[in-house]
Amino acid sequence: MFRTLSAAALLAAASPLAAQVHRSPLVDPKVAALRDSALQDQYAWDIAEGLTTEVGPRLAGTEAEARARAWAVKKLTALGFSNVRVESFDLPVWVRGRESAEILAPFPQPLVVAALGNSGSSGPGGVSAEVVAFDSVDALKAAPDGTVRGRIVFVDHAMPANQDGSGYGQFGAPRRQGPTIASQKGAVGIVVRSIGTDRHRNPHTGAQEFSDGARPIPAGALSNPDADQLLRILKRGQPVTMKLVLESRTFAGQSGNVIAEVPGRDPSLPPVLVSGHLDSWDQGTGAVDDGAGVAIAAAAAKRIMDSGRPLRTIRIVWFGAEEVGLVGGQDYRARHGKEPHYALLESDFGADKIWKVDSKLGTERKAEAEAIGKALAPLGIVTGSFTEADGSDIGPMLADGHPGVGLGQDGTRYFDLHHTPDDTLDKIDPVQLRQNVAAWTTVLAILSGPIEEPKRPKRR
Amino acid sequence: MFRTLSAAALLAAASPLAAQVHRSPLVDPKVAALRDSALQDQYAWDIAEGLTTEVGPRLAGTEAEARARAWAVKKLTALGFSNVRVESFDLPVWVRGRESAEILAPFPQPLVVAALGNSGSSGPGGVSAEVVAFDSVDALKAAPDGTVRGRIVFVDHAMPANQDGSGYGQFGAPRRQGPTIASQKGAVGIVVRSIGTDRHRNPHTGAQEFSDGARPIPAGALSNPDADQLLRILKRGQPVTMKLVLESRTFAGQSGNVIAEVPGRDPSLPPVLVSGHLDSWDQGTGAVDDGAGVAIAAAAAKRIMDSGRPLRTIRIVWFGAEEVGLVGGQDYRARHGKEPHYALLESDFGADKIWKVDSKLGTERKAEAEAIGKALAPLGIVTGSFTEADGSDIGPMLADGHPGVGLGQDGTRYFDLHHTPDDTLDKIDPVQLRQNVAAWTTVLAILSGPIEEPKRPKRR
Known about the structure:
11-stranded mixed beta sheet; 3-stranded mixed beta sheet
């Protein structure tokens, strides 16, 4: 709807109050106008709502993820992007089956469990054994094999909720390392406290891989209230036995990255890559992880396209198969990792407000990085590092030396929802989503270079 | 631990600050002292923690509820109560089996569903049909049979969260009436929006009965996010088909009320009945519904007993089989309904702070009702009606004309948890739980009459 409006017209259309506030001379007025008008964005909501409603869950490599790619191609084409295409790749697929956990003694009762990615299958009969508990992966590592052999391991942790999401790496160790260590010590199964910060009966799934030759064993996550309950039962001091049923199966499948572009005026210049991931875990509808991310990236690119033609090409990538090991990012890197990119960006931390911008554009582009910070400040965004940026799928390419910008979302409630059935559309706050789009539009407007306004019919 | 301390000694032991605040002369100092010391209560937490940990879920008529009665008898005996006994009764039992809901077209995806009590069993193959949606039971009632026949009905509503819990009656109509009406109009199944106020993927179960000769059909509740999703899908305007699997079975079982007493000095006087219900729904551990209630009632009685001997007998009743139709209350009424009771009280609305006291003691006991209000005011409790009181199991006896007192808990978040897997111990706030115990202890101290302090050994 802004296609025929110039940035100047948008500025003039701003509220009377805004007109009375003198703006920073350090921010390009066209950039500021694009930023402010994006606070009324509807594109991102429409994408997130459409994807989560019309496709729903879309686990990597499944038929549902294939439907998501078809949906994405149709949607990106309808939005008017160019060069819409899928780059496909093969991958092994793991899907969950029936799952349950049950205390057999001393206090018989069900617990709520979800299998972790790549869990071994228990078969329909499950495994039953005494539970041996550890407060950390370090405690599990230190245990003699005899303490673990033939038992079901439980690993606890105390993950906090933090604005910057810090702790997911450290406190996620039980999920990532626990199953392999438990298997190597002869455990018949493992349950970990969910890597999450909520208190609902929704376990947090997530990827893990049996490495170093460890035999796959059933590996699940208990919800936080169930982990609390198991601890209370253990503290009674009697032997605790558990039955764990975690069925699953694996097969060879296919995924792909969906790519679309806003062609730049100078195709010889390296593109600006903006991204999120299209796949989701299977229990929610992947709204905050990462329906919001693909929506924000595409909405910002759409807003630039609506306002005119940028100098540099903007390349939207909706990665496939991120959750199961950044497979889409690896495929993109294998195909395009040697090509220059002007900057890499990825939105994959929900839809709550962006509070910090980090960048890694190099010392020769410090002024550009500073300009980004100045332009974002009115959105309540602090300027962070000039030497780092991050992203999940783009992480390896950033590590290779490609430049990037990181827009950090408030993660305080992110790990309440992450990898659970509760990751649904209602958890996206439309107002905060728009702040995200405004921040991305701002950064894109700067990185993609001066936008040439479309020719308009003369006024009558 | 207060057994050998007099109320006066407790008062003297209060904090220095409290000693500097002049108290209302309208409140008996012994009552005030019992009230204030109850703010340090540990009994209620221990009961709620023990019951939910060592028994867990305890559906009416099941082996788990029988274990809960055995646990209750042991606990009430250990606490020193007298005449601990079980009054047993028979009842038909319904238990859930496998359950799932799935959109088959136009956007295939799973939805989260839970069977309602007494749902018909779909069998393992489930039922598949087009969905027909109504915004209310009234809309369903008004529909021609032809609109409903052969279809799966969905009934929506817009239940709000209110401090006094109002709305559960009105907005619970889809659960209570929907299945019967849908069946009578020829529906093959029904799903209702959960009668709940949260936004988690936890459906709210609850009782319903097929009446007026209606054939049982599969009847379930979708979680609120799933009801939202179904509405979004319906609004796309294409026919929506759903597969609904709700297996269940029924059998003849037994339940019972667990009763214990603090004997009064005058056994000829009518008892004060304090109660909650021991059974719970099957998916949570029945912490707020109603582990907290039985804990609060017994803790308050224990505190009176610890302080001396009341004039009137305090009778604790932990009702069985409340959730499935107030069966325990009906049994108690059949056995004891003709006997005089000095007052009936029941705690069955969670563990958040009590904000209002209502009573129905009769005009000749207005002064007693006013004294209760004065004594509760320092706990932040407003005095409400003098002509009404309520309670679930005790409701029919109150309607018969028995006197009662109602201590109203803050229900703002109650229907976030009610009848869901999320009803677990962590949802009980220990500080608010103690305020409940303080209020109940206060009311019991007044209703059970002057407490005679135990004889103590002379000071050396």
